[in-house]
């Protein structure tokens, strides 16, 4: 099962400890074959909205930047519970904030 794990921006500035712990976590998941992709996302982005056959394109940044997704990880695990546990480990490393887990259907 594949899951997309996303996280919203944090008010906490990263430090050397955070970088070291995240590097070790990413290395562990990569070695285990669980981590398929990971990355940070541009805060501004582009929004497309379709309505009645018309498509409107709006460049960011948007008013509610705190609601935007700041980063992601695509993982392949055996169960939803395993994905939740990986997300719990991630949140313990990065601290306060919000993440979302969604199953990816292929």
From TrEMBL:
Signal peptide: none annotated. Pfam families: YCII. Residues 1-90 form the YCII-related domain. SUPFAM superfamilies: Dimeric alpha+beta barrel (SSF54909). Belongs to the YciI family. This is YciI family protein. It comes from Streptosporangium jomthongense. The lineage of its organism: Bacteria, Bacillati, Actinomycetota, Actinomycetes, Streptosporangiales.
């Amino acid at each position: 099962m594949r899951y997309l794990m996303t996280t919203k921006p944090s008010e906490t500035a990263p430090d050397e400890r955070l970088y070291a712990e995240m590097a070790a976590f990413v290395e562990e998941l990569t070695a285990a074959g669980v981590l398929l992709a990971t990355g940070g996302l541009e805060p501004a982005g582009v929004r497309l909205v379709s309505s009645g056959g018309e498509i409107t394109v709006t460049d960011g940044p948007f008013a509610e930047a705190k609601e935007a997704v700041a980063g992601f990880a695509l993982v392949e695990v055996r169960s939803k519970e395993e994905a939740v546990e990986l997300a719990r480990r991630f949140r313990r490393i990065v601290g306060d904030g919000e993440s979302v887990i969604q199953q990816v259907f292929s």
